[in-house]
């Protein structure tokens, strides 16, 4: 089980997101010469900016011929297009054609038998590479020539128009965009299924089919793929996947009451969740170099398709304290939540911070603090001063708050957000760029 939370202070609030979970992937066994073929489309072969990303898990490093999770190249009439592949040097590699030859770059290291997210971005003549949402390398791509007419393939490369470089492993959630995605967008969205439509998303092969289906549907467009040479017998075909988040931590909050702190967190779904260790780090002068230490454990639900809520009370929380959750699977694997900070005293004054990130697409976070209990109103307005959204309108105790805001249903442009509490009022502007 993996999850993500987006920061922060003494209170973190995030509305529960209802997402369709991606439960299957496509398993390839290179010796079966299996692959998915997608008919040529200019949509997925642009000459300008684009982004291709996917999850892949290798089942053994190739001894000789490389294995390719995604390829769209043309070699019979000039060397054009590109291929992403893994070779016997334990590297993810990218190769593109310039019309007369091939140029290549190293994306990053391969961790065998481990789900890895790979993204390649063509950004104004430069190829940028990302592994698990982190930028790794770049290659000058000004000489890139797009594939003019050949098919694209998932699970195989191309040699003189025929499939080659068969992949050995599993592939899930392949996305093709006709825009250069930013590092923030790649990192923020790689773990979750996408809600549709998405600006710039041309094709989205979720690879969630099952049984003996020979079609890999394109959820965002019309570029469906056809499966070839799959046995559907356990050696290759549709298999259960945990590449994307089988659970999402939808909120993680902390509320101080004297020297006690009440922690509350919620999940949308769970898979094989053994439980949560609660870890704390105190920021007292006498404990400036102290690392996070375990202060408790809360048993998980295991596997659940409905939201779950958990809580824990830290009765000894003097001064400013940091908290995080260590989620543990039943097989011993674990991952950490983001960190939240609980201040030792109530804020001294009202304040509204600049939203982050800004510009944003489609989500951002508002952070504010109130020095006294009272009703808090946080609203978003469009550039004409019309109310666009009510983010919060409720009673809050003194403290610091961070609230997530999703603008996926709004058009690009300048917006304003206003905080009101008692006699305090503050307005700031933000830019939504899709």
Annotate the secondary structure layout:
Blueprint lengths: L10 E3 L10 E5 L6 E4 L11 E9 L8 E8 L5 E7 L4 E7 L4 E8 L6 E8 L2 E6 L2 E7 L11 E3 L2 E3 L2 E3 L4 E9 L5 H7 L11 E5 L9 E2 L8 E4 L8 E4 L8 E9 L2 E8 L2 E13 L10 E12 L3 E7 L6 E9 L4 E3 L3 E3 L8 E2 L10 E8 L3 E8 L5 E10 L2 E8 L6 E9 L2 E9 L2
Parallel strand pairs: 1-32
Antiparallel strand pairs: 2-15, 2-19, 3-12, 3-18, 4-9, 4-15, 5-6, 5-12, 6-7, 7-8, 9-10, 10-11, 13-14, 15-16, 17-18, 20-21, 21-24, 22-23, 22-25, 25-26, 25-27, 28-29, 29-32, 30-31, 30-33, 33-34
What's the total count of β strands? 34
Characterize the biggest β-sheet: 8 strands, antiparallel
Query: Residue share in helices?
Result: under 10%
List the domain count as a whole number: 3
- Regions with little confidence, pLDDT below 50 for 5+ residues: 1-22
Average pLDDT value? 85
Silhouette: globular
Radius of gyration: 24 Å
Please state the structural category. mainly beta
DSSP strand content: over 45%
Helix tally equals 1
Tell me the CATH topology of the largest domain: Jelly Rolls
CATH class of the largest domain: Mainly Beta
What's the N-to-C terminus distance? 31 Å
CATH-scheme architecture of the largest domain: Sandwich
């Amino acid at each position: 089980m993996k999850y993500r939370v987006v920061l922060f202070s003494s209170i973190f609030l995030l509305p529960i997101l209802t997402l369709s979970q991606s439960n299957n992937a496509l398993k390839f066994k290179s010796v079966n010469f299996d692959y998915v073929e997608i008919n040529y489309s200019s949509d997925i072969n642009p000459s300008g900016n684009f982004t291709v990303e996917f999850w892949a898990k290798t089942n053994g490093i190739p001894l000789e011929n490389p294995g390719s999770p995604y390829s769209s190249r043309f070699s019979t009439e000039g060397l054009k297009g590109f291929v992403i592949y893994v070779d016997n040097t334990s590297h993810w590699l990218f190769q593109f054609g310039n019309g007369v030859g091939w140029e290549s770059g190293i994306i990053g290291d391969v961790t065998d038998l481990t789900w890895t997210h790979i993204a390649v971005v063509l950004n104004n003549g430069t190829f940028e590479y990302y592994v698990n949402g982190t930028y790794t390398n770049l290659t000058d791509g000004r000489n890139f020539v797009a594939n003019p007419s050949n098919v694209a393939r998932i699970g195989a490369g191309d040699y003189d128009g025929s499939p080659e470089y068969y992949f050995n492993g599993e592939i899930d959630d392949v996305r093709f965009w006709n825009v250069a995605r930013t590092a923030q967008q790649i990192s923020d969205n790689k773990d979750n299924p996408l809600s549709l439509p998405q600006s710039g998303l041309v094709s989205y092969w979720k690879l969630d089919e099952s049984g003996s289906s020979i079609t890999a549907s394109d959820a965002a467009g019309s570029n469906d793929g056809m499966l070839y040479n799959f046995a559907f017998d356990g050696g290759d075909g549709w298999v259960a996947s945990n590449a994307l988040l089988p659970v999402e931590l939808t909120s993680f909050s902390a509320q101080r009451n004297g020297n006690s702190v009440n922690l509350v967190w919620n999940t949308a779904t769970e898979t094989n969740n053994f439980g949560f260790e609660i870890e704390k780090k105190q920021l007292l002068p006498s404990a400036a170099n102290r690392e996070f230490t375990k202060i408790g454990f809360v048993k998980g639900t295991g596997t659940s398709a409905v939201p779950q809520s958990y809580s824990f009370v830290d009765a000894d929380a003097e001064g400013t304290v940091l908290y995080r959750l260590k989620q543990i699977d039943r097989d011993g694997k674990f991952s950490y939540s983001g960190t939240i900070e609980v201040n030792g005293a109530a804020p001294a004054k009202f304040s509204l911070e600049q939203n982050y990130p800004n510009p944003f697409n489609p989500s951002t976070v508002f952070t504010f603090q109130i020095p006294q209990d009272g009703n808090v109103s946080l609203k978003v307005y469009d550039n004409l001063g019309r109310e666009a959204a009510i983010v919060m309108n409720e009673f809050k105790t003194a403290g610091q708050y961070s609230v997530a805001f999703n603008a996926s249903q709004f058009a690009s442009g300048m917006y304003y957000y206003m905080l009101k509490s008692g006699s305090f009022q503050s307005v700031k502007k933000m830019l939504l760029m899709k």
